[in-house]
Amino acid sequence: METPIKYPGNLTLRVVLTCIMAASGGLIFGYDHGVSGGVTSMDSFLKQFFPSVYEKESNMKPSSNKYCKFNSQILTLFTSSLYLSALVAGLGASSITRMLGRRATMIIGGICFVGGALLNGFAVSIWMLIVGRLLLGFGIGCANQSVPIYVSEMAPYKYRGALNMCFQLSITIGIFVANLFNYYFSKILNGQGWRLSLGLGAVPAFFFVIGSFCLPDSPSSLVERGHHEEAKRELVKIRGTTEVDAEFRDILAASEASQNVKHPWRTLMDRKYRPQLVFAICIPFFQQFTGLNVITFYAPILFRTIGFGSRASLMSAVIIGSFKPVSTLVSILVVDKFGRRTLFLEGGAQMLICQVLPPLSSPHQVHAVWIL
Questions:
Q1: Would you say 223 and 244 are in contact if contact means Cβ atoms under 8 Å apart?
Q2: A single GO molecular function, which one (predicted)?
Q3: For 54-72, how does the pLDDT look when each residue is reduced to its tens digit (9 = 90+)?
Q4: Cβ atoms of 158 and 110 closer than 8 Å
């Protein structure tokens, strides 16, 4: 096995500030991921936009299947439209990132999210909710495509894992804050607290846009667009040393190799790239297929279906959400010491143990398992 090249350089303040600022884009994704499930469990929101769901909830017998009350295609469209537009935006944003740079893609994504959050916060009809969600999804797709690349390119190799996971930390903080806001806003403004829950997503997005304007382009992005001298000057700034020739040559070589690939999608199917392709697809697929993100997204609704009240279900989501930033912070501290593979194994084993536990009849026991 080849020994990784160790480039000279330090963890400069410029790198720390730029990576943290860029990674704060995860607040956008995390906040919306956490806020939507709570809002759709609020009676005032359902009564205004989904009266049929609210009527089912009000008239349902105690012995009936409580989950059926949320069976609405329009309600499903409200929640899923974000992910549909995020999928399309994620594919299209790769071209924008190459042509305009990572920073420009982050700015575009942040502006879309500001517009979507405000449209949802001031919504008076279903179409405003749906269009707002589509804008949110487009913003999330742009941010998720550009931020991890930007952080990886700016971070020194020794701290790349920890700095890259700041994006995930921002996502978990966003989920926790959204759950907390849902709980406190659910009983204020004469039942209109859901407007604050949805609309306040514009706040982190606004700061993300302003911060993105202040961020420098990464050296790799500058090289891709032909600005070699500027790229080298930026590399000297972020590494805190003038001894950047080796790393700069590798950036040039990587950019040249990338430009020589005429048909990237066809190249991915070559046999020599097949292991990387399989892992790149299977790892995120099976992580999502565990259903853990579904539990996070629909936590308030799931708790209501097993017998919790409206406020109790929102508080339960807060408790679950509070564990995510803590576990992510632990991962940040150990990832560069023990490696990504070790965290994969530990996280997978923990999920397996929790998901093969026998079904539990008590809602409080189920609550404890979900927290794990």
A1: no
A2: monosaccharide transmembrane transporter activity
A3: 777 666 655 555 555 556 7
A4: no
